Amino acid sequence: MSDCEVNIDDPLLSKHQATIIFDSSLGWLLSDGDEGNKSTNGTWLYASDEIELKNLTYFKGAQTLFQALT
User: Fold this and answer.
1) Is residue 24 part of a domain?
2) Is 3 among the domain residues?
3) Burial class (CB in 10 A: 0-12, 13-18, 19+), 9
4) Are 17 and 4 in contact (CB under 8 A)?
5) Domain-located, residue 52
């Protein structure tokens, strides 16, 4: 969606695929969807729970593979 901070050209990604936030005590956190709404095709890492992103962590949204560089 145009209101997202990062836009990726993958027709299978949801309008709001995933959310990445920074928590000063936990670090970078990845969760599927946005504002409590899950994405259509899921964000694949370990489970559907929020997870801390560490350097070089891989995760997948639809057909796009991402790597976190922290």
Assistant:
1) yes
2) no
3) exposed
4) no
5) yes
pTM (2 d.p.): 0.53
- pLDDT surpasses 70 at 61: yes
How many independent structural domains does the chain possess?
1
Alpha-carbon torsion, ordered 27, 32, 34, 36, to 10 deg: -100
Task: Give the Cβ contact number of residue 67 at 10 Å.
Answer: 10
Tell me the pLDDT tens digit for each residue of 20-43.
Answer: 889 999 888 888 777 777 776 666
Q: What is the pLDDT of residue 24?
A: 92
How far is C-alpha 55 from the geometric centre of its chain's CA atoms? 15
> By residue range, what is the domain housing residue 27?
18-67
